[in-house]
Amino acid sequence: MTYLLLFYEFFKTGLLAVGGGLATLPFLNEMATKYGWFSVEDVSTMIAVAESTPGAIGVNMATYAGFITGGVLGSIVGVAALTAPAIITIMLVAKFIDKFKTSPLMQNAFSGLRPASMALIAIAGLGVAIPTFFNTDALLAGDWSVAFLWKTMLLAVAIFLGQKYLKKIHPTVFILIAAVAGILLKL
Question: Per the confidence metrics, is the pTM higher than 0.90?
Fold first, then answer.
């Protein structure tokens, strides 16, 4: 039964998470709170693993979440369910590509999907940023002395500036630097 539910949830995610892998985060957070298959904190770990491994972020996250939920078979079910809507859509679009390309209705639909995907990505970004930069328990308790996680804030600013001004350095280098800094600074 868990595998059917896992398939349903990831199929729904693949169908509705327009905008790429980070747009799946609200769905993963919902799964965490609704089913308890993994914690909301695990979602941050999923992001770190998905971002630092080869492949599509959404697929990597489905693999990780599926594995936590149901082992290797859970990973297979999660990835199959997440990618099924895209495969079905691509097969349908390929059949009617000439009609879709020039259709004002489809162009308007995609214009409407852009802000929706941007909102999903922004919500996902906030969902990752808040527990990364703030000790939410201390923040809620009003203990401002430990509410801000300064080390992670400084690391994020350093990586941001490095990416912005050192464009010749491959992003993988920054991921490795962040991993080493996480180990050395015990983040």
Answer: no
